[in-house]
């Protein structure tokens, strides 16, 4: 049987990760290609730390037009790039590479991912107080998203307070108009009101499913209008259950995942998806994900 689904003139895109087999990105991008009739193919590359530079060099020489970078390479890859976008520099990590004549330029589309997921629910950071739980990779993107979109106050709470301090200092350097503070998780109860809570810890995921980074009494004191959890498995974490009970809008990490992928395609192909295309792609992927997730 003839299989002509990939032809010689197709653009090649992919993702570097270790491990990479869990990644939902190939499904997202190849679905977009099929839905919109685009001539590209997106493949997973299992790249180990010691081979990262050689892999980037090889991809450049093979004209791989765009790459996503996932755990654990988001920081290390920065050494092998010919340029880094300002927002990615503020985050201190890249998740998207675009091929240029001189090498790859690095971007971080996680900020756009969180931003668009919240905009879709009618939320704007402008003049607001945000509580960010966590100080790892996803928290960096959530924090930069809040500050770059005009949050007045950003409180970063993390188990290891030194990491929250480092993140707070970096964000303050790039976005001085946002007042940033670093506290430990226990101090959240005394921080006053927060318009939004963003969970970027792993509490609620995997073996920590059913747990929440803050308890119901603390969440009630914050009176947040919206609660975002970067986790998308389970679809409703314990924190989101608490938020729902308290009458807040709740948003899981699925839209962040989809929107960061669409933002990467916009960079690779220098285009913009229409709101109708975004809606169609996102509902198709959500249906697939709900039906197929383990
Ligand atoms: P990471 O860099 O490893 O950061 C993990 C964070 O969780 C750190 O702040 C860590 O605190 C905290 N943490 C872990 N165990 C804890 C515990 N027992 N008690 C208190 N705090 C704890 O991970 P990441 O890449 O940022 O991912 C964080 C979450 O976001 C994951 O659940 C991931 O699935 C999700 N995520 C979603 C998307 C999306 O597109 N929706 C994208 C990326 C990540 P310490 O600093 O004290 O260790």
Task: Estimate the global geometry from the Cα principal axes.
Answer: globular
Share of helical residues: 25-40%
**Heteromolecules bound:** NADP nicotinamide-adenine-dinucleotide phosphate
Average pLDDT rating? 96
List low-pLDDT spans.
Answer: none
Query: What is the chains' assembly state?
Result: single chain
- Straight-line distance between termini: 32 Å
Q: What is the element string, with H for helices and E for strands?
A: EHEHEEHEEHEHEHEEHEHEHH
Put simply, the count of helices is 10
Describe the protein's topology:
Layout: E1 11-17, H1 25-36, E2 40-46, H2 52-61, E3 66-69, E4 83-84, H3 86-91, E5 96-100, E6 103-107, H4 110-120, E7 129-133, H5 137-148, E8 153-157, H6 161-174, E9 179-183, E10 196-199, H7 216-222, E11 226-229, H8 238-245, E12 249-251, H9 254-269, H10 275-292
Parallel strand pairs: 1-2, 1-3, 4-6, 7-8, 7-10, 8-9, 10-11, 11-12
Antiparallel strand pairs: 3-5, 5-6
This protein binds NADP nicotinamide-adenine-dinucleotide phosphate.
Short description:
The protein is an alpha/beta fold and 294 residues long. The chain is built from ten helices and twelve strands.
Structure description:
By secondary structure, the chain is of the alpha/beta class. The chain has 10 helices and 12 strands. Helix 9 crosses helix 10 (275-292). The chain is globular and about 60 Å long. Residues 113, 134-139, 158-160, 163, 200-203, 205, 230-232, 253, 256-257, 260 line the site of NADP nicotinamide-adenine-dinucleotide phosphate. NADP nicotinamide-adenine-dinucleotide phosphate binds next to helix 5 and helix 9.
